[in-house]
Write a structure and sequence with these properties.
Chain lengths: 324, 441
Amino acid sequence: MPGLSKKKDTGKEIKDADQDKGLFQRLQQGLLKTRSTFTGRLDRLFLGKKEITDDLLEELEEILFTSDIGVTTTQELIDSVQEKVVRKELKDPEKLKDALRDHILSFLKVTEVPHPVPEPGEPLVILVIGVNGVGKTTTIGKAAQRFRMEGKQVMLVAADTFRAAAVEQLVVWGERVEAEVIRQKTGADPSAVVFDGLTAAISRKIDVVFIDTAGRLHTKTNLMEELSKIHRVAGRKLPGAPHEAWLVLDATTGQNAISQVEMFNKALGLSHIILTKLDGTAKGGIVVGILQQFKIPVKYIGIGEKLDDLRPFNAEDFVQAIFD
Amino acid sequence: MFESLTEKLNSTFKKITGRGRLSETNVRDALKEVRLALLEADVNYKVVKKLVEDIRERAVGQEVLQSLTPGQQIIKIVNEELIRLMGGAKKGLELLGRTPHSLMLVGLQGSGKTTTAAKLARCLLKQGRKPYLIPADVYRPAAIDQLEKLGAQIDVPVYPTDPALKPEEICLDALSKAGGEGADLLLIDTAGRLHIDEALMAELVRIKKEIRPGEILLVADAMTGQDAVNVAKNFNDSLDITGVILSKMEGDARGGAALSIKAVTGKPIKFIGVGEKMDALEPFYPDRMASQILGMGDVLSLVEKAQAEFDEKEARKLEKKLKKNEFDLEDFQSQLRQMKKLGSLEQILGMLPGTGQMKNLKQLKPDEKELIKVEAIINSMTREERKNYKIINGSRRQRIARGSGNRVQDVNRLLKNFTQTKKMMEHISKRGFANMESFFR
Ligand SMILES: Nc1nc2c(ncn2[C@@H]2O[C@H](COP(=O)(O)OP(=O)(O)O)[C@@H](O)[C@H]2O)c(=O)[nH]1
Ligand SMILES: [Mg+2]
């Protein structure tokens, strides 16, 4: 990163402490010392600063990187503010913060992806997909609850016929939100379950149908093909369905999330992203570059395992949290 | 990004023609690219920073191997450094003392604990152990059910957990019933939890206190980003984990989290999960992980080949000496240095079939301090002594000890190690690696 590498590594003081200690121990100490920068970062950074220095930019860069914003996007963000500094458009550190914030926000403001809507009297069908363990089933439970609160009739389709007790897990959520769960045996063809589900939903005049799918790595072509088939079968049963395809991303995930979005989007076209597990310490910065590149909006964020732990995504709050 | 790392390094070095040593400037330029590559691979920012600094120190002034370009030489150094950081320590499970033993799996939600518990059970069953699966996740819907089904699938008994009980009570009761089940190893599947959830972290500490498990393994998702350091640090601080299992390694994640986690905890990565099937659990190989993080298997094999050619020349020289029974203390010293470079003897031997169960290998592994001592001692010897160790009598030993600032016992031990190694080398040169076990008894 031009202009940024001048600062001497702060690792020096760590080294002096004890030559004999292993690298890892030294690293640990270093991490301990800098731990305060992991939290409450930006304001401390700017406190009392009168000038924009390379050091300041490097610390900004650290905030962006440690939020999982990634190399390309971080470089783009830093380069843009740096340019403004060089052109003397930016002198005040406080303004720098705002400029950066605005820049990230501009990436996050994404309009709806065009997607079909159900005909009057037909159910809205939402297909929920993602890699293993990101929170698909839990998200369905929580999202179903939101629709239930609006007085909608919800049905859950247990199309994860692979993972042990995945069906039972969805059944528990069905009980919690008072939604019927359509299921077959473990090992059944997921498309067949989806066909059953939509048939039942249409005849019972259900408002919203969630299809829970097995977690799969986006690199497994046969499993991605299985998803496309589910998609096709749904459309055959009910033209336009599934109307929405939600990709669930775990906020703890690093750069691999880009590859996930790319492959799932290629397989069946995503309408929304759900970002889960933001109740931890991960910032989920990976979505900044993802939204910039793929223009798929984040619909909800997951902030826990309880029924009401799903919130609409708010870009301003999200950026704020990156700098907190 | 990664194909282009090599390209970038090569173009960075294009300006430098000929061979010679790596200079400060060209190392700096190259390391800029390396830094970005590591960040792109999800290695934590701080960890990268420290790593790059260490690599810089190592690289500047280094001679470029004859068959390598400077760019490849840098990659070689980076690769070696990554392997070194992720390697060390033994990888297998360490379950000692009286049975039943217990092993506890901990980690964030969705990291893959339940599946891993069953995979481990299957693997241990194959090794003749009698595992007992304990579902201690009373929170997530159908988590108990999930482990019961997996247990049935692999024919391993599962403790019938009463979700109304506290996890520590469940574990204690399971421990008391293990004998009756004919089990000698409890595998405890705990609920996923956030590392900042104090109440739930305290629960794990209680289980640990009651059960005193021989192994506490952190299951972490290979796709984890920068937060891996925080997660690993908190789990390790609370529980003093004994190792790590990286799950979901079969995808296209670079897996930089492996490096971050090892860096903050110092604990070995013992296994990797490579699929949803019950047999998809493998030992962890630092070298494979390093090339995955760097995303450059091809380049590395090229580099390895060059290295191998170089090593082969050395090996042939050594072989000649061995045949003529000329292996002396100077060769011993250079072997020790070589081992340090290549990773431990344990690791090298571990790759050969049939050597996996060899004991006592640890004693042969030189540690850094030991190596410095050995160097000092050998340096205090005369050329004659180095060529022919048999002339080193009591008074010579005393002189050498004094000269090198060591005790006579240290000199004695070194000579004993040397003669042992000499014997081993001669054995290998005559009979290859077969029957090596007899040597270590
Ligand atoms: N802390 C936290 N945990 C979550 C969140 N969403 C899901 N989980 C947990 O993550 C784990 C995996 O979720 P699950 O829905 O089974 O994932 P799936 O495999 O994608 O269906 C479960 O333990 C969930 O309770 C969230 O927003 N925050
Ligand atoms: Mg699920």
